[in-house]
Amino acid sequence: MNISFHSIFVGLLITMSSTLCCCSGPLGGNGPVISFQVGVVLDLDTQLGHRALHCLRIAHSNFYSRHTNYTTRLVLHVRDSKGNVIDAAASSLELLNDVKVDAVIGPQKSTQANFLMNLGERAQVPIVSFSATSPSLQPRTKFFVQTAQTDDTQVGAIAAIIKTFQWNQVVIIYEDSEYGNGIVPHLSNALQDINARFAYKSLIPVSAHEDFILKELYKLMTMQTRVFIVHVSHSLGPKLFLKAKSIGMMSEGYIWIITSGLMDLLPSMNLHVVEAMQGVLGIKPLIPKTSNVESFRLQKTIFDLANPGYKPADIMSIFDVWAYDTLWALAMAAEQVGTHYPEASNQDTNSSDLFNLPISKTGPKLLKAILKTRFEGLGGMFHLVDGELYPTSYKILNVVGNGEKEVAVWTQSQGFKKVGPNTSDDLYSKEDFSSIVWPGRSRVVPRGWEVPVRGKKLRVVVAVRPGFEEYLNVIKDSRTGAVHFSGYYIDVFKSVMAALPYAVPYDFFHFEKPDGSCAGSYNDLIYQVFLQNYDAAIGDITITGNRSNYVDFTLPFAEGGVVRIVPITYEDDNGMWTFLKPMKKDLWLTSIAFFFVTGLAVWILEHRTSSAFRGPPSHHLGMIFYFPFSTLVFAHRERIVSNLARLVVVVWMFVVLILNSTYTASLSSRLTVQRLRPAIADVKELIRKGHSVGCYQGSFVYDILRGMGFEDSKIKMYRLPEDYKEAMSYGSKSGNISAFFDVVPYSKLFLSKYCDKYTIVGPTFRTDGFAFVFPKGSPLVADVSRAIIKLTENAEILDMSISDLTCNGPDSIVTSVSVSLQSFKGLFAITGAITSSCVLIFIVSYVYKNRCSLQQILNSTNTFWSKIKEIGRHFDQRDLSSHPSIISRDPHSRYPKPQVAEIVSSSESVDLSNSSLRVLSLPMNILSTHSSNIAVPDIPKDSTFSNSTVLAPILQEESNTAIDATDR
């Protein structure tokens, strides 16, 4: 009865196959048929192998029914590998040695492919596998072809799911085989690209029994992570999910994602396995919906009904499609090779060595033709790249009811696409996946982790610094032993945890030894969190680079920075050198230098024209120093003749006015206002003088002080504020400290109590602020950081801060500051530029007017120093050409109006070369009588004039007439 039933369906299958195929020519053809021997190595006792073999036969029948004019034909030689590498190798050796096949389809598993690809390389026969999907088949030989998408092509789709739902930790469960291990490094890299990571890797042997699987699942339950990626074969998958269902791991809050290998076999699984997998997400390559696919689906349905030993599949397997396309590709390549190389055959060997395989002449040509073959197959475009099937899109499936529901489509270039009529809209957020049914039949997207695990509370260790109860205070009940925690940090932590979108129970623990003493430094506390003895740590814990290597920090909730606290004293302004303090040394020196430069410039500009700047050398030097200083009180009496000199003096008097005003104001302030100043205001001074400094015991500030240059022996540590307050009051000379370094919050609180005796000086050494501490990879870090940001933006953390920081000390603590050169750089630059320009203009004018005389001196045969002396003598001569109006003419009078003459010193010389002066001889009695109206020049020794001769201007109309003084 059964035989008849089977025969009926086989006959129906053949009939349907012939009817569904489109023939392109008469059956058989006229020419001789060239046969290509093709071996098929599959695990025929498995669901996949049995179905794949039938797909190959359907593909064989359909191909040659459609291409009846082809002159080549594939002859299939089927061998059973029985699920192990040895039988697969033995079957392949028999096919290569005895049958002398031109190609081998298979093997079915990746573990078998590693050996078979080497046999194909030695015999130069293509090994074509549609089911060995491991990307780690290395070293890959050129004769091994994967007509399937390798497992690494689906990691992008898995990572996209993880990113969409913002899960930052996952657990991968994979089998210990070539198939299982191959995907792990690729998936790890894909997760790193989206800032996610493996929280744990669960490796399960292929032959693992149920007790081992159960033990491993219990271990996973104790972890926080609830996202599990499963990459196992069909033999382990059903057992894994049945055990997970039995212990409650398929309930609400869990996320299970399975890879394409297991998802593809879901239709062939038993119903009780499918029931256990409710809510699972799966990845599967997309099969385009075409007429050929529907025809093949009908043929497969007939096959499933004709084989009662296997569960019928409502959904077509991707491996069925790849097997079908593989035979078509091989048949096309054989036709191309047979047409061009009909004489191709194998080269026999006479060796008795089992592995001395015959070298195929057809194999290399057939391989080349396969790699170039392109056609539209059942699975889409059949196109090989580097011996692998070019990846296509993936479907995101959800196990619901007795089958699978398509949720979305993912492509490498465009990401997610919606399923339905409008498939062009990208999925951007998890709200677009609202149709997914999660484990426990929940519609709420799981957050991917659970805290606490199995009813445990979060163990939060508290770092308590004594002496600052406003920030953290611990009170222990001596009767009950209960510990009560309070303070600013506790309030902030409670507010942050309350702001989370879910409830997280927690308990506080004091970081202390059984005897009640502190259990260690802050780094010791950090290390305990690293060892996961605690789930979190709170307190005045500063973020540092070294600590971040062991734990994860949230965003800071309090300001950071380290400042220096020093004692303050009153300034003593009764010293003998107090008058020098209003200006700094650099300003004093610069001012003195400009006094000298200005005096020298005025002398140069006035020496040749004004008698006030003439005389003996000592008179010149005194005038250079005296004149600019006399301008301080505007006491100068010298007549300035030159316009250039007047400009210099005007600008200089402006500078003197500002300097004088600034000095007067600063000195008055020092003598009338009592000021406070730090004892030592510079860190370099502390180091240079060997002063000792302090910091809190166990704080990271100790490392900062060492980095500044302080010796270990000069750094002292204290626990109580009273201790370092007393140490600073005595100072470093008595074996204590001169300054104390601490973080900003505690420094402010300390000064609110002692601001009349201590102050903060110098810059703030930048550090990150206080933050909460969690173990590496804790899923709470991101959510707690978001809650801190939210509370900070709403000013709720600011409202909880300590506001009573008042002090009854001085209203202000002002550090005396002397005026520096920086404040007057612009002023000195202006006066320097104007003075230099005026001197330069004068020198250029002098050289131009006296170019003949100077040229004559330079052309002389005297020595260099002699020429310099001559030029100096020439410059020393008085020049009255620029001021000819000593006697000026009245424009309304016929005769010139007498002018007061200027008395010339008997030691002076007068340059008459450029002057229209007439020498007049006057008796000495006239000189003595009219000494106020005439000037007596210094007549050179070689002059013929007596010492009673004077000079007077010569009018233009009287240039040829001599005027004698006695005629008046």
UniProtKB/TrEMBL annotation:
**Keyword Membrane among record annotations:** yes
Which residue ranges does the record assign to the Ionotropic glutamate receptor C-terminal domain? 459-804
Q: Which residues form the signal peptide?
A: 1-21
**This protein's record includes keyword Lipid metabolism:** no
Q: Name one GO molecular function term.
A: ligand-gated monoatomic ion channel activity
Which Pfam family is an annotated match for this chain, by its short name? ANF_receptor
Which CDD domains does this entry report, sorted A to Z?
Answer: GluR_Plant (cd13686), PBP1_GABAb_receptor_plant (cd19990)
Q: Which InterPro entries match?
A: ANF_lig-bd_rcpt (IPR001828), GABAb_receptor_plant_PBP1 (IPR044440), Glu/Gly-bd (IPR019594), Ionotropic_Glu_rcpt (IPR015683), Iontro_rcpt_C (IPR001320), Iontropic_Glu_rcpt_pln (IPR017103), Peripla_BP_I (IPR028082)
SMART domains assigned: PBPe (SM00079)
GO cellular component term of the entry, any: membrane
Q: What UniProt keywords are attached to this protein's entry?
A: Disulfide bond, Glycoprotein, Ion channel, Ion transport, Ligand-gated ion channel, Membrane, Receptor, Signal, Transmembrane, Transmembrane helix, Transport
Q: Which domain of life is it from?
A: Eukaryota
Q: List the disulfide bonds.
A: 755-807
Subunit details for this protein? May form heteromers.
**Do you know which PANTHER family this protein is assigned to?**
OS06G0188250 PROTEIN (PTHR34836), OS09G0428600 PROTEIN (PTHR34836:SF1)
By sequence similarity, the record places it as follows: Belongs to the glutamate-gated ion channel (TC 1.A.10.1) family.
What is the protein's name according to its record? Glutamate receptor
Q: Which organism is it from?
A: Anisodus tanguticus
